Amino acid sequence: xxxxxxxxxxxxxxxxxxxxxxxxxxxxxxxxxxxxxxxxxxxxxxxxxxxxxxxxxxxxxxxxxxxxxxxxxxxxxxxxxxxxxxxxxxxxxxxxxxxxxxxxxxxxxxxxxxxxxxxxxxxxxxxxxxxxxxxxxxxxxxxxxxxxxxxxxxxxxxxxxxxxxxxxxxxxxxxxxxxxxxxxxxxxxxxxxxxxxxxxxxxxxxxxxxxxxxxxxxxxxxxxxxxxxxxxxxxxxxxxxxxxxxxxxxxxxxxxxxxxxxxxxxxxxxxxxxxxxxxxxxxxxxxxxxxxxxxxxxxxxxxxxxxxxxxxxxxxxxxxxxxxxxxxxxx
Length: 331
What we know:
two-stranded antiparallel sheet; globular; flavoprotein; EC 1.13.12.16
């Protein structure tokens, strides 16, 4: 029967499950597989070296799925920023209907996307930022709890508080991100006021994820303690998998007088890409969240999405309903 929410209606998808727009991972193979499974797959714009490469990747994704998919455009302050406006134009010219924005001062991009009839989902880590994005005119919010991989912000608010706090104040659809990987999480997110879930790390441990099998197995073998928080000292906190590289970053950063340049050689995105593509887990950072503790296999995206939805439905119709009816509740 499926789970229908404001977000599934907005995006024209079957299931309220979104694949996070992950650097080096959000490619056509994964995005198409998630969309074909009834969720919303996301290409990562800046994974592609140039705007023209992004155009080709969008075209390639269309050869793999006729279902809705989106593109992530993350805007970060930089000394030498990528040509964001050109990537934005590639997205618009390619006829993409859904965009996930994230990062620093997206107003210019949101305005242009909206002017071309594109649905904009803005990803953020705080209620105040979500409200700002809503005023900006975005169509939906993706809100990241402290459990997430990537940059969880500096407030350290976990999803159990952040999701209902955002739901209390937002009037547009919201999907919950950070710590989601199974049907229990989907049911919980819906109960907390979200309209769906966003999963990044969990989709990395799937057959179609375009990363090395060593990395996928690494995620399966890790538990919920298997992450490090980095860049805290520099007010740009990131959550990554615990490996020799992130251990070094934490140790160096803890030294008195340490500056970012001391760890910069260890944290380059190019080295992280090497780790993902070669399976050398000591080559660079592997970005992963605490949800590693809930990952126990490497299914196809189709099998994973079906299982999550079926399990969530069973919880909502069975266990929770039984509590209301006075029936004996199964363990």
